Amino acid sequence: MTVLFSPLGLAYGTLYSAILLTRPARVVIVTSAEAITNLHATLDAARFFHTHFEFETHVLEDPQAGFVEGRALAKFLAASAEGDNIVNLTGGTTALQDCVRSVADILRRDGKPVREVAAIDRRDVIEQRRSPLVVGELVEVSPV
Fold this sequence. Notes:
Elements: E1 2-8, H1 13-22, E2 26-31, H2 39-47, E3 54-59, H3 67-79, E4 84-88, H4 94-109, E5 114-120, H5 125-130, E6 137-141
Parallel strand pairs: 1-2, 1-4, 2-3, 4-5
Antiparallel strand pairs: 5-6
Helix pairs in contact: 1-2, 3-4
Protein backbone atom coordinates (compact mmCIF):
# COMPACT_ATOMS: atom_id res chain seq x y z
CA MET A 1 0.00 0.00 0.00
CA THR A 2 1.30 3.46 -0.89
CA VAL A 3 0.96 6.07 1.86
CA LEU A 4 1.41 9.79 1.21
CA PHE A 5 2.38 12.04 4.14
CA SER A 6 1.74 15.70 3.35
CA PRO A 7 1.39 19.05 5.04
CA LEU A 8 -1.64 21.17 4.17
CA GLY A 9 -1.49 24.93 4.36
CA LEU A 10 -3.70 27.70 3.05
CA ALA A 11 -2.44 27.13 -0.51
CA TYR A 12 -3.96 23.70 -1.00
CA GLY A 13 -2.91 23.04 -4.60
CA THR A 14 0.23 21.25 -3.43
CA LEU A 15 -1.80 18.57 -1.65
CA TYR A 16 -4.07 18.20 -4.68
CA SER A 17 -1.06 17.78 -6.98
CA ALA A 18 0.72 15.39 -4.61
CA ILE A 19 -2.32 13.11 -4.45
CA LEU A 20 -2.85 13.02 -8.20
CA LEU A 21 0.83 12.61 -9.03
CA THR A 22 1.50 9.80 -6.52
CA ARG A 23 -1.89 7.98 -6.49
CA PRO A 24 -1.68 6.76 -2.86
CA ALA A 25 -4.03 4.32 -1.17
CA ARG A 26 -3.86 6.40 2.02
CA VAL A 27 -3.12 10.08 2.66
CA VAL A 28 -1.88 11.30 6.04
CA ILE A 29 -2.33 15.06 6.30
CA VAL A 30 -0.69 17.35 8.86
CA THR A 31 -2.39 20.73 8.96
CA SER A 32 -3.66 23.66 11.02
CA ALA A 33 -7.12 24.57 12.29
CA GLU A 34 -7.20 27.44 9.79
CA ALA A 35 -6.07 25.43 6.75
CA ILE A 36 -8.33 22.43 7.39
CA THR A 37 -11.26 24.45 6.00
CA ASN A 38 -9.94 23.69 2.48
CA LEU A 39 -9.44 19.98 3.10
CA HIS A 40 -12.73 18.49 1.94
CA ALA A 41 -12.92 20.57 -1.25
CA THR A 42 -9.36 19.51 -2.08
CA LEU A 43 -10.01 15.82 -1.42
CA ASP A 44 -13.30 15.90 -3.35
CA ALA A 45 -11.52 17.44 -6.34
CA ALA A 46 -8.73 14.84 -6.17
CA ARG A 47 -11.27 12.01 -5.90
CA PHE A 48 -12.75 13.05 -9.23
CA PHE A 49 -9.54 11.69 -10.84
CA HIS A 50 -8.28 9.23 -8.19
CA THR A 51 -11.19 7.70 -6.31
CA HIS A 52 -9.56 5.03 -4.18
CA PHE A 53 -7.80 6.55 -1.19
CA GLU A 54 -8.42 6.86 2.53
CA PHE A 55 -7.26 9.84 4.53
CA GLU A 56 -6.50 10.84 8.07
CA THR A 57 -5.87 14.32 9.41
CA HIS A 58 -3.69 15.58 12.25
CA VAL A 59 -3.94 19.22 13.37
CA LEU A 60 -0.99 20.96 15.03
CA GLU A 61 -2.14 23.30 17.79
CA ASP A 62 0.63 25.77 16.92
CA PRO A 63 1.33 25.52 13.18
CA GLN A 64 3.82 28.39 13.35
CA ALA A 65 6.12 27.28 16.17
CA GLY A 66 4.88 23.78 17.06
CA PHE A 67 8.12 21.99 16.26
CA VAL A 68 8.15 19.90 19.46
CA GLU A 69 4.50 18.95 18.90
CA GLY A 70 5.19 18.17 15.23
CA ARG A 71 8.19 15.97 15.95
CA ALA A 72 6.24 14.03 18.59
CA LEU A 73 3.51 13.50 15.99
CA ALA A 74 6.15 12.42 13.46
CA LYS A 75 7.32 9.66 15.80
CA PHE A 76 3.74 8.41 16.14
CA LEU A 77 3.12 8.54 12.37
CA ALA A 78 6.38 6.81 11.50
CA ALA A 79 5.72 4.03 14.03
CA SER A 80 2.46 3.18 12.27
CA ALA A 81 3.82 3.51 8.72
CA GLU A 82 3.84 0.46 6.49
CA GLY A 83 4.21 -0.23 2.80
CA ASP A 84 5.60 2.30 0.35
CA ASN A 85 5.86 5.70 2.00
CA ILE A 86 5.99 9.00 0.15
CA VAL A 87 6.64 12.26 1.98
CA ASN A 88 5.60 15.49 0.27
CA LEU A 89 7.87 18.25 1.54
CA THR A 90 5.82 21.15 0.15
CA GLY A 91 2.85 23.03 1.55
CA GLY A 92 1.96 24.58 4.86
CA THR A 93 4.10 26.34 7.42
CA THR A 94 7.68 25.50 8.27
CA ALA A 95 6.50 23.59 11.37
CA LEU A 96 4.10 21.47 9.28
CA GLN A 97 6.86 20.76 6.76
CA ASP A 98 9.29 19.89 9.56
CA CYS A 99 6.79 17.37 10.91
CA VAL A 100 6.49 15.42 7.66
CA ARG A 101 10.22 15.74 6.96
CA SER A 102 10.81 14.21 10.40
CA VAL A 103 8.57 11.29 9.38
CA ALA A 104 10.88 10.69 6.40
CA ASP A 105 13.99 10.90 8.59
CA ILE A 106 12.60 8.40 11.10
CA LEU A 107 11.45 5.98 8.39
CA ARG A 108 14.84 6.11 6.70
CA ARG A 109 16.64 5.60 10.04
CA ASP A 110 14.44 2.57 10.73
CA GLY A 111 15.13 1.06 7.31
CA LYS A 112 11.58 1.50 6.02
CA PRO A 113 10.98 2.46 2.38
CA VAL A 114 10.46 6.20 1.88
CA ARG A 115 10.59 8.65 -1.02
CA GLU A 116 10.71 12.39 -0.54
CA VAL A 117 9.03 14.55 -3.15
CA ALA A 118 8.07 18.16 -3.75
CA ALA A 119 4.85 19.09 -5.53
CA ILE A 120 5.59 22.35 -7.31
CA ASP A 121 3.59 24.81 -9.39
CA ARG A 122 5.60 27.02 -11.73
CA ARG A 123 2.68 29.33 -12.48
CA ASP A 124 2.56 32.94 -11.33
CA VAL A 125 1.43 33.29 -7.69
CA ILE A 126 -1.65 35.27 -8.73
CA GLU A 127 -2.68 32.49 -11.12
CA GLN A 128 -2.05 29.87 -8.42
CA ARG A 129 -4.39 31.73 -6.06
CA ARG A 130 -6.99 32.20 -8.79
CA SER A 131 -6.97 28.50 -9.81
CA PRO A 132 -5.36 26.40 -7.06
CA LEU A 133 -6.62 23.01 -8.26
CA VAL A 134 -4.28 22.60 -11.21
CA VAL A 135 -1.87 19.66 -11.20
CA GLY A 136 1.72 20.81 -10.98
CA GLU A 137 4.93 18.79 -11.17
CA LEU A 138 6.45 16.21 -8.85
CA VAL A 139 10.15 16.56 -8.11
CA GLU A 140 12.01 13.68 -6.47
CA VAL A 141 14.20 14.85 -3.60
CA SER A 142 17.21 12.60 -3.04
CA PRO A 143 18.26 11.82 0.54
CA VAL A 144 21.40 13.48 1.84
